[in-house]
Amino acid sequence: MATRRVVFRYPRHLIDAPVVSQIARIYNLEFNILRANITPQSEGLMVLGLEGSAEDLDKALTWVQQQGVGVQPLERDVVRNEERCTHCGACVTICPTEALHKKIATQEVCFDSDKCIACELCVPACPPRAMEVAF
Amino acid sequence: MPKTYQEINEKIKSGQVVVVTAEEMTGIVEEEGAAKAAEQVDVVTTGTFGPMCSSGAFLNFGHSNPRMKVEKAWLNDVPAYAGMAAVDLYIGATEASEHDPLNRDHPGEFRYGGGHVIQELIAGQDVRLRAIAYGTDCYPRKELDTWINITDLNECFLCNPRNAYQNYNVAVNLNADRDIYTYMGVLKSNLGNANYCSAGQLSPLLNDPYYRTIGIGTRIFLGGAPGYVFWPGTQHNPTVARTEKGLPKEGAGTAAVVGDMKQMSPEWIVGVSMYGYGVSLQVGLGAAIPVLDEEMARFTAVKDEDIVAPVVDYSRNYPYNEGQPLGYVNYKDLKSGQITVNGKQIPTGSLSSYPKARAIAQILKEWIEAGQFLLTESVQLLPSADSGLTFKALIERPVEGEVI
Fold first, then answer.
1. A-B Cβ pairs (cutoff 8 Å, strict)
2. What residue segments make up the domains of chain B, in order of their start?
3. Can you give the pLDDT of all 404 residues of chain B as single tens digits?
């Protein structure tokens, strides 16, 4: 048995497609939804842990891509270098999952790594380059 | 009874001074009224921390043997200006590294530049100096490649032609499908986000909107050390439209500032990379404003909801000087995380760090309470709303005739 962590990016028209239940059924995979952010107005993001035979996993991910869903392996973590962060807030509207957000009262920028899907959009958007990719 | 600078400084020296931050002053004036607040409070401290283009540093690295009149120079491969003398350099915050791909592969990352060199010098890191010269009888040397460190430099001072912008645009992107990469950060298509860049109620020049106390010679907090205002900043534009309370409704006053980098800290001067735009420098700056009278008490009680900023499209209107602002929003709403533009709710981001601004106002307060920071009376105030001074656009005059 093999396990993989992946990010699925759903285009708007596929948000209600039962992609996950289908790969579980057709390719005999166990799945664990780690994070999901799907709203009717925008594209959806889902982070999954998948378990199955290596062959089934490859086939399933190929099939998912053929359906028009973007697939990205989640092999890296984004971490914040606390010393470099100046709490300016340039990242908060770039982050698609609100893992980076501001506390209204103090205006501090918080990084909630549990919500992070490692899309890395914040990495170049951070002026002091405080967001780093850890392998 | 109006207070004088001398009286306030005597109180600072004797430990009797009453100093509060601009945030604290708002509550005091609301509770006590401006007249009473003016009697009670002597000084209001302010702060701002954000990317401030139009920053840079002068340094003098001493004469080599044999002597050299530097013609071109690089600090960690970032070009520095040498056309002043023999061994004086100016390193500008927005100068990119010599071999940076810039925007050839758009959006460029701009990982390193003048702002980073300045921060590393302040942090005490060694910086590589390369220089070339054509050689003269009195300055024969033609090449130099050496490490320098701020402790060995004769002088090293930050000298920023334009800082502390009094208010600023809120940047958005009206383009339907293209994200844009600006000095105001990444702006997502179709009003995907809005970025602002001011400390609002803590910002120095918004607490002294008509520059009644800030001018040439005003001692300030700059980069963690005492510094000074030495001139009106470039693009100083005091005659813009103002609210009933006298607050400019767009970018207005600016200050040119100077300070000793040997005393500064890399916590308050930070090199930054603006994705797809270039390099710059985050600067921490604060002013201590004397509450000379009731009017200054009222001014320093400014709050975020009183300050409005124009929402400007950076996909077309800003670069091509077209159109009008899409509207005005106040800083309370901006800091709530969401504003409404053209009927659409959009999330807000910022480039200016409010936590850092607050920390600067607090440090300045502590310096004053400890008797370490005396106020200076400006020898000439910044030109104000009645000066007639306006910010001119370039009128191009085509060059005719033979061009060599």
1. 82
2. 5-42+163-267+291-381
3. 799 999 999 999 999 999 999 999 999 999 999 999 999 999 999 999 999 999 999 999 999 999 999 999 999 999 999 999 999 999 999 999 999 999 999 999 999 999 999 999 999 999 999 999 999 999 999 999 999 999 999 999 999 999 999 999 999 999 999 999 999 999 999 999 999 999 999 999 999 999 999 999 999 999 999 999 999 999 999 999 999 999 999 999 999 999 999 999 999 999 999 999 999 999 999 999 999 999 999 999 999 999 999 999 999 999 999 999 999 999 999 999 999 999 999 999 999 999 999 999 999 999 999 999 999 999 999 999 999 999 999 999 999 887 66
Place of tokens 């139009």: B54
Which residue in A10, A73, A134, A125 sits closest to B272, CA to CA?
A: A125
In the numeric block, which tokens belong to residue A123? 């990495």
Q: Which of A83, A95, A107 to mutate to test the interface with B (most CBs of B within 10 A)?
A: A107
Contact A88, B186 (CB under 8 A): no
**Residue whose C-alpha is closest to residue B236's, from B391, B114, B19:** B391
In chain A, which residues fall in CATH 3.30.70.260?
Answer: 2-73
Chain A interface residues facing chain B, Cβ-Cβ under 8 Å?
84, 86-94, 101-102, 104, 106-108, 124-125, 127-129
What CATH number was assigned to the domain covering residues A2-73?
3.30.70.260
Give dist(CA B67, CA B83) in Å, integer: 16
- Residues of chain A contacting residue B49, judged by C-beta atoms under 8 Å apart: 86, 88
Q: A-chain residues within 8 Å CB-CB of B107?
A: 124
Give ipTM to 2 decimals: 0.95
Shortest CA gap A54–chain B (Å): 37
Whether pLDDT at A41 is above 70: no
Q: Rounded to the nearest 5°, which phi and psi values hold at B84? A: -120, -40
Measured between CB atoms, which of B282, B335, B336 is closest to A127? B282
State how far residue B383 is from chain A, nearest Cα, in angstroms: 30
CB contact (8 A) between residue B356 and residue A87? yes
Q: How far from B124 is each of B51, B147, B269, CA to CA, in Å? A: 21, 12, 13
| B351–A90 C-beta distance less than 8 A | yes
The second-level CATH assignment, the architecture, of A77-134 is 2-Layer Sandwich (3.30)
- Beta strands, E only, B199-307: 215-216, 219-222, 225-232, 255-260, 269-274, 278-290
Active site (annotated) includes residue B138: yes
Q: Cα separation of B343 and B323, whole Å?
A: 18
Which of B194, B352, B355 lies at the smallest CB-CB distance from A108? B355
Of A90, A102, A129, the CB nearest to B185: A90
